[in-house]
Design a protein that fits this description.
Radius of gyration: 38 Å
Largest sheet: 7 strands, mixed
Number of helices: 4
Number of strands: 16
Shape: rod-shaped
């Protein structure tokens, strides 16, 4: 073991740019210092030129490891560019792609390029129970949120689940996206079929725009307007207007707002035609009565 340690020290001393290397009898090794007293291996330096350089066979620096004593920061960089690496500053902040991290974990792509944070699980597609997940916790783990992939959201479904320790833990049906078809569920994890948005619960909005067909065909020439006798017969037999779904159908399948608004307009336009026809008939009756009184 001591022999391996000696070989390591010799290798490091070959790579580091320091004026003094020391191997005292107590077994400690010093690189850049003549009095190594803070560990078995003590390296002293300030800046990338006095750190450890790793080279290729062709003489190119692949990475550097050094400590900035003035700023009290630790750096591990790719090549000679300190911005292309990892920084641990004196307050415990970690920076990737930046030497001045502004938070506990700060990732930066600099002046160009994307900054992508990637979590990957189950790379062999062998165990669907292995999933990437981000957990946020606050107030002593009382509240928080889990987001990512989990069997609790359903297989191959992304979700965001609030966490409250006093209210049963996670609500796994709060927000879910089916990765296969892109459908979204709010309050439900069951979002199969052609529904792009499935909501279990009430929706409040200032405005909803529904793009669908309209019922102007009622006023076009050739429209088969049912007679009032036909409408009366249908009401007696079915208990509803023509083309309007039954209460049982609505209970089982719900109501499509766009289609239902079109059907309701259809009935209003048909009613308008009935009123116009009745008005004309009334005018004819008035004329006949007036003629008979002469």
């Amino acid at each position: 073991m001591k022999r391996m340690m000696l070989l390591l020290v010799c290798a490091l001393s070959y790579q580091i740019n320091a004026q003094t290397n020391h191997f005292p009898p107590n077994g400690n090794a010093g690189i850049g210092t003549t009095s190594p007293s803070h560990g078995k291996l003590q390296i002293y330096g300030n800046g990338p030129e006095q750190g450890i350089n790793f080279w290729t066979n062709s003489g190119e620096i692949t990475s550097r490891l050094w400590i900035d004593n003035q700023k009290k920061t630790f750096h591990l960089s790719k090549g000679v560019n300190p911005e292309k690496g990892i920084t641990l500053d004196n307050n415990g902040f970690i920076g990737i792609g930046t030497t001045t991290p502004l938070s506990l974990f700060n990732v930066s792509s600099g002046t160009s390029g994307d900054a992508i944070f990637r979590l990957e699980a189950d790379t062999d597609n062998n165990n669907e129970a292995d999933n990437p997940m981000i957990q946020l916790r606050q107030d002593g783990d009382i509240i928080g949120v889990d987001m990512g992939f989990s069997e609790n959201f359903g297989e191959n479904q992304f979700g965001i689940a609030p966490w409250h320790s006093a209210q049963g833990g996670n609500r796994w049906d709060t927000f879910v996206i089916n990765i296969g078809n892109g459908n979204v569920g709010i309050g439900t994890k069951t979002i199969e079929g052609n529904w792009k948005l499935a909501v279990k619960g009430k929706i409040r909005a200032e405005e909803i725009k529904v793009e669908t067909g309209w019922a102007d065909y009622v006023f076009k020439e050739g429209y088969d307007l049912p007679s009032l006798e036909e409408v009366e017969k249908h009401i007696k037999e079915k208990g509803r207007l023509i083309n309007i779904p039954s209460a049982k159908e609505v209970e089982e399948n719900g109501v499509e707002l766009g289609e239902m608004n079109k059907l309701l307009l259809e009935k209003i336009e048909e009613l308008t035609l009935y009123v116009i026809a009745l008005k004309k008939e009334n005018e004819e009756i008035k004329k006949s009565i007036k003629h008979l009184r002469k």
